[in-house]
C-alpha cells in the first residue's frame, strides 16, 4: 500500500504524466510485490520559482517520495530504485536527475480500514520481500 509522489518543475503533456505514474507503479509491482491495482500515486507539478533544482541537475530533475509499510529488504529497495531510474530513463530523464526517498512509518502509525492501526489488520500481502 505505498503512497508515491512524483514532483517536478516543468510542464508535461498528460500522456507523459501518465507514463511517469505508470513507471512508478510498475516499479513497485516488480520490486515491492505490491498487489495489482494498488496504485496510489500523485503527480505534482511546481512552478519553477517554487522548486529549486540542486546544482548540476537539469530542468528534468524529478523527486520521487514513497511512503510505505516497513519490512522490505535492502535488495527490494535497490531494485525499486533501479526500476524507477530505468523506466524514467526510457522517457528521457537522466539517472542523475532522479532523486528517490522512502519513508517507512511503523505499522501502528497507519490508520486503515475504518481507522484501525495497520499493525492489527491482516494486510493480505507479504511485506517481507
TrEMBL record:
Superkingdom to which the source organism belongs: Bacteria
A Pfam family reported for this protein in Swiss-Prot or TrEMBL: Tautomerase_2
InterPro entries noted in UniProt: Tauto_MSAD (IPR037479), Tautomerase/MIF_sf (IPR014347)
Full protein name: Tautomerase family protein
Organism listed in the record: Herbaspirillum lusitanum
Amino acid at each position: 500500500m505505498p503512497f508515491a509522489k512524483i514532483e517536478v518543475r516543468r510542464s508535461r503533456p498528460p500522456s507523459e504524466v501518465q507514463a511517469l505514474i505508470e513507471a512508478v507503479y510498475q516499479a513497485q509491482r516488480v520490486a515491492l510485490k505490491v498487489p495489482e491495482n494498488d496504485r496510489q500515486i500523485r503527480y505534482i507539478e511546481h512552478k519553477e520559482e517554487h522548486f529549486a533544482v540542486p546544482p548540476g541537475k537539469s530542468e528534468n530533475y524529478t523527486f520521487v517520495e514513497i511512503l510505505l509499510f516497513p519490512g522490505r529488504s535492502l535488495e527490494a529497495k535497490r531494485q525499486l530504485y533501479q526500476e524507477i531510474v530505468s523506466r524514467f530513463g526510457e522517457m528521457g530523464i537522466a539517472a542523475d536527475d532522479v532523486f528517490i526517498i522512502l519513508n517507512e512509518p511503523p505499522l501502528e502509525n497507519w490508520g486503515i480500514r475504518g481507522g484501525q492501526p495497520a499493525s492489527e489488520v491482516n494486510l493480505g500481502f507479504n511485506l517481507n520481500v
